[in-house]
Please model this.
Amino acid sequence: MKKEKTEQYESAIEVADGIYWIGFYDVDSGLHCNPYLIVDHDEAVVIDGGSRPDFPTVMMKILRTGVALPGIKALIYQHYDPDLCGSIPNFEALIGQPGLKIISDAANHMFIRHYAVKSHLVSLESIGHEYRFKSGRVLRFVNTPYSHSPGSFVTFDTRTNVLFSSDLFGSYGSQWELFFKLDAYCIECNTFPVCPNKKTYCPLYNILRFHQHIMTSAKALRHSLKQILKIPFMKILPQHGSIISQPNDFVLLFKLLGNADDIGIDAITTEKSGLSHEDIQIRFVDRGDNFNGN
Ligand SMILES: [Fe+2]
Ligand SMILES: [Fe+2]
Model:
């Protein structure tokens, strides 16, 4: 069974018109990274290109699509983590084009440059939050601040109505499928996260758990979901987990994530401020501590 699954994911998979999943299906990993390639005539861009160890697999899949490497005009990074950006120097070396652009929010570029980047760093602000192919096809960028990085954003392909959501709608879990699938009874589940059918994992809980750990706060997550609701997407392509395309699943997931209060720091403290002036006064003044060792 596992072997069949591995074979199924050995090549790039076209998941929408001209959009390819070029990730690495690692049977031993609970966190699968999903880089994507968009091919538009003789041009291409890579979204969230992947980690350094995944690079040979990712590049092999790109080559198998038939794309000519100089045709890759831009690498888009929706935040600055190493699971997306680690392979930037490898991409630069193989593409070998001085005109290659690295597109991200300026807040991400501050950190992206530390991957020893040589290419031109292009900020979303400087291109009016959109990337235009020669054909006229437009990618729109929408900021989702603090979900989970200050400069995080999502990318909407206006031609296919695909939304590249980066870590949003991602998932942890050893049971991975490229396409999100819920059993009919999941919709009405009232024992969540324990499966009434005794499955050893719950795909919905895996998504919730991922957001609880990775996102900064319920406030930030809800703000981002609100921004995403305004986008006329039909399919969500996350950087981890599975591709989501069923309207029922969108409803379920937006409600699940939008109602969760225990996200990021909110799971640790609900205090508005855990620090009072009195705490500071007691520690540094009343107690008479000084820093001279006396
Ligand atoms: Fe991340
Ligand atoms: Fe990630």
In short: The radius of gyration is 21 Å. The chain has a mean pLDDT of 93. Residues 81, 83, 167, 239-240 surround fe (ii) ion (ligand 2) (CB under 6 Å).
